[in-house]
Amino acid sequence: MSRALLETSTGIFRFQLRVPESPQRGHDLPDPWEGPEQCHAGFCLFSNPEAGGGLSLITTPRIAHLIATSKEIPESTGIEPEAFYEAEVPSKGSGLIANRTIRKGEVIMQRGPVLLIQSVPHIDLEPGRRLELYQAAVDRLPEPMRSRFLRQTGDTVYDKVEKNSFRVFLDGDRKHSIHLGLFPDVSKFNHDCRPNVHYRISDLTHTTVAVRDIPAGEELTISYIYGLKPRAERLEQLSEWGFMCTCPQCALSEPEAGASDNRIRQIKMLEDEIEELVAKGAPLLRPELGARLVELYREKRLDAYMAPALTRAALLYSMFGHEERAREYAREAVGALEREVGPRAGDLGPMRALARDPKSHWSWAVKVTSGDKKAAAAAAAAGRRRNGTLGARSGGERARLGKGKREKEKGVRG
């Protein structure tokens, strides 16, 4: 059985487990799994009171078998000492508050799901039958997990699923892979369009990570949506959660909101421009475009979405032979990828390699012409001559020693 993770930039990640073409039937699940029961149109209820503190599934026997035989069901964990506490937040209700300074990159919370529901019965099942099935799934949860689930926002179990679920993708891209996952502790994070915490879901684990330093007393927030959108689009999408966002970004005056939306458009246009120039090999491509992109992201406080911009900047500076700038952006990209995507991020290995040794990276100087390379070499040689302070003989000895060292290092690397 193999696993693969598909990353996105929105905070929604796909957990893919491939199972054999002829898996065991759902009723052959190992103890202490129970089910199938209350089946409808191929979807059944399965439950395990011990998995991660309690887990109920409404899914196909195939996917139930996938999960029951997986070793990826996590136990709930958090950072120590306890870094946050629950408290009332004005105009928001309950929320999470930093109990101490939380540093950028710290894992705040890791949780497994307590309820997974395949999307087809959630959409197509007759409302009365659906509510009955959902209630049965919650009833199978042991205490205190059942109480934690019921404390989530929403009048009925269906309402709680609608308002608190995250998309989880199981069994690759096969039919019926889309599920709704409920993580009650995570639902305590309130929304902000410029959050200080980012989340990712992989291997059935929901992980929240600080994307900047968070001082004690500040509320911990995540974004329920992808943040690189104009205010009107964000508000419309957030209305599906049944609330009007009043975060500082959405509370801007009309002129301020217009300027903010214009920045978002600039970011989109610059990203498209960079991609087009790279694809065409156009002479207008310059590494400064990558630096400008990073600057725009930072101006908009898009701390939860920095990885793509930093990766682009690192590659552009490497392509034009700027070693230190390439290394600098690559190091930052590594940190952002670890925070936003996790250890399986596709770009993580290449960015680590670029940060370690830009000149050995595939992108190094690919946009530098032979004339530019000769000019750069001449300038470097002139700089070495200007920096010589011990006379011609000493300078010559230094040059020979330096050359020998470089040749030795090259041999070791090879």
Automatic annotation (TrEMBL):
Q: Ranges of Basic and acidic residues compositional bias?
A: 395-414
Q: Extract the ranges annotated as region (Disordered).
A: 377-414
Coiled coil segments of this chain: none
Q: Which SUPFAM superfamilies match?
A: SET domain
SET domain residues: 82-225
Tell me the superkingdom of the source: Eukaryota
Instruction: List, alphabetically, the CDD domains matched.
Output: SET_SMYD
Q: Which InterPro entries match?
A: SET_dom, SET_dom_sf, SET_domain_protein
Q: Record's Pfam families?
A: SET (PF00856)
Q: Record's PANTHER family?
A: SET DOMAIN-CONTAINING PROTEIN, SET DOMAIN-CONTAINING PROTEIN 5
Q: What is the protein named?
A: SET domain-containing protein
UniProt organism field: Thermothelomyces thermophilus (strain ATCC 42464 / BCRC 31852 / DSM 1799)
